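dumping this here so i dont lose it again. seq + smiles for flavin mononucleotide
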Amino acid sequence: MELYEAINARRSIRDFTDEAIPREVLSRIVGTAYQAPANDHFRDWHYIIVTDKATMRNVIAGVPQNLTVKDVDAMTFISDPVQKASYQIAVPKQYQMLIGAAAVIIPLMKKKADVLHPRDLSDLNCFASVWCGIEHVWLAAAAEGYGCNLRIPRGNEESIARKALGFPETYMIPCFIGIGRPAPDAVRTEQIEVNLEKQIHWNQF
Ligand SMILES: Cc1cc2nc3c(=O)[nH]c(=O)nc-3n(C[C@H](O)[C@H](O)[C@H](O)COP(=O)(O)O)c2cc1C
């Protein structure tokens, strides 16, 4: 698939078939992360690819399983109806979209600065870099005909995953990525319309 096609095909996928993904394909997809730009040139990220369901269950044991569309009503920062609809699709699926995936991919970022209390933007460079790689993974998955979702770990979700996977305290998880073959009826959220004429500026704001 051509790059622009993959970019346009990429959507968050939270409903999958039972199809497994061959190991070499998962390696190829995750390997693209290491072509991403990196602030310090090291690309010393690690990725853990979990395909074993029992391990998956242990890794995501902290992800809420009983959220419903009603929980979206309590999210007072949501104002736009398209945004609200996207949360109504996503929120109840946070656990299912990971456990129902062919694999859960866990990127690991070395903590080189206190990203939760940065002194300035450059303290967030390691975080920004790992995200560049995550987007490569998403696009490579789309190019291979697969779909991804992601969840940002909250509360004790990271420590539960650390215990299940045995990675050291010096690494943090920026997100969990669920990957698989999109189900024929996989829901794709309606997109907010962006007016490029208004949002892309030439020479001045
Ligand atoms: C930084 C970031 C955090 C996100 N967190 C979550 C999340 O916790 N759960 C989830 O289901 N989707 C999450 N998403 C996916 C967004 O909901 C999704 O990308 C957005 O609604 C646009 O839809 P699309 O990906 O289908 O184009 C996140 C995306 C980004 C970039």
